[in-house]
Specification:
alpha/beta; eight-stranded parallel barrel; 10 helices; about 15% strand; binds 2-phosphoglycolic acid
Length: about 250
């Protein structure tokens, strides 16, 4: 199983999000081999869910509150997201950590809240350029994983990890597939030491419809989390065709 997750960030407004969603309704892919999900702005989430209701494309949230319900002005919880048909939630995306100052403690609380609500968390981790320059990639990832997963009661629930090097996000400079795969192998073992089992690990950072096949073809890369390139309607058929071909899946 390979995953193709589209993080629309704050690129598309309500109308634009619905337009991309409508273009995905007839998208042809084998859902037993490829899991597709879109992560629209919260403003468009319910509308996009309605448009995709009878399709094989799932919907996820880009961010959640750690609180479940109540007097939390401006917050949106996993419980509320679950009620509108949301299936996944990104937790700890680097833009949340680095632009909005989200702490490891918050990441951990959000992870627990997402699981409590029955959503599937996509835990995002990644090193900065400074970490990389200082040869501290695994040090940074180890810390992020430990703070998020140590003692987490996952039970039978699903969890995915997205490896997204901060230096590769939105820069047009992706981490090469061979290097990413080696890191994915390391992440899988590290996660297993906390959870007792392996979980899918997706790669994210400057993935395009032209380079997606390089990642999808790697056995330790379970899929991709794509930002800006996934907001273009025209790119989707090529994305799915290349994912299918590279992962050996039938169209
Ligand atoms: P990008 O973003 O594909 O625009 O680099 C990826 C992400 O942040 O999830």
């Amino acid at each position: 199983m390979k995953y193709f997750f589209a993080n629309w960030k704050m690129y598309l407004d309500l109308e634009e999000s619905c337009a991309v969603a409508r273009s995905l309704v007839g998208l042809s892919f084998d859902e037993r081999n490829i899991g597709v999900a879109v992560f629209p702005t919260l403003l468009a989430l319910a509308a996009v869910r309605d448009i995709l209701r009878d399709s094989a494309v799932a919907v996820g949230a880009q961010n959640v509150s750690w609180a479940p319900k109540g007097a939390y002005t401006g917050a949106v919880s996993s419980v509320l997201l679950q009620a509108v048909g949301c299936r996944y939630a990104l937790v700890g995306h680097s833009e949340r950590r680095h632009i909005f100052g989200e702490t490891s403690d918050e990441v951990r609380k959000k992870l627990a809240a997402v699981l409590d609500a029955g959503l599937v968390p996509v835990l995002c981790i990644g090193e900065t350029q400074a970490d990389r320059d200082a040869d501290k990639t695994t040090y940074r990832l180890k810390k992020q994983l430990m703070k998020a997963l140590d003692g987490l009661a996952l039970g039978d629930a699903d969890l995915l990890v997205a490896y997204e090097p901060v230096w590769a996000i939105g820069t047009g400079v992706p981490c090469g597939a061979a290097e990413a795969e080696a890191i994915h192998g390391w992440i899988k073992q590290e996660v297993k030491s906390y959870l007792g089992r392996e979980v899918p690990v997706l790669y994210g950072g400057s993935v395009t419809s032209s380079n997606v096949a390089e990642y999808a073809a790697r056995s330790l890369i379970d899929g991709v989390l794509v930002g800006s390139a996934s907001t273009k309607i025209a790119a989707w058929s090529e994305f799915i065709a290349n994912m299918s071909r590279a992962s050996g899946a039938a169209l």
